[in-house]
Amino acid sequence: MDMFQLSKKIALNENELATRWGISPKTLQRWRCEGRGPKYFKLSKRVSYPIDEILAFEFDSLHESTDGVTCDPEQFNNPSFLTAREIAAKIDIPFYLLTHPGERKKIGLPHYRVGKMVRFKLDEILDWARRRTSESESKNQTTHRIIPLGNIQPGLTRMM
């Protein structure tokens, strides 16, 4: 749709807007349920988006660069932050424990989110490992039980 045709229309339907933005009409439907996207009006079952609302939404969506809230470039350049691969190479810890969010949460692994990336500080990981080791050792000292073997006939071994 060229600008001349666009200037004649006062609203776009769901399919026209989806085509304009290169997204699926289902995305627009989901956005309406979530309260996102441009304002629209609905007549019976037909959804239409006023051109001025589309243009306002597009204008509000313009960004010069990634904002500092979601991704601070200084954090990326900070040598104290390491990737999961670097941490796994420096200390003997399985890579999957560093990369799977559920595992990190379950074991209480300290980490930082830098944008969409996960980063670690070596000193915090080492402190965490020391705490885990000391907790494990104290548990093992208190939970040792002596299990009586009873009478074992010669030639037989007891498996547990």
Walk me through the structure.
This protein has 9 helices and 6 strands; from the N terminus they run H-E-H-H-E-E-H-H-E-H-H-H-E-E-H. The chain is an alpha+beta fold. The strands form 2 sheets. A 3-stranded antiparallel beta sheet has the order 1-3-2. A hairpin with a 2-residue loop joins strand 2 (41-43) and strand 3 (46-50). The longest helix has 22 residues, at 122-143. It is elongated, with a radius of gyration of 29 Å. Residues 156-160 have low confidence and may be disordered.
- The number of helical runs is 9
Question: For this entry, what is the oligomeric state of its chains?
Answer: single chain
Strand fraction band? 5-15%
Report mean pLDDT, rounded to a whole number: 78
Residue stretches low in confidence (pLDDT < 50, at least 5 long) are 156-160
Q: First CA to last CA: what distance?
A: 76 Å
Total strand count, please? 6
Query: What is the helical fraction, as a range of percent?
Result: 40-55%
Principal-axes geometry comes out as elongated
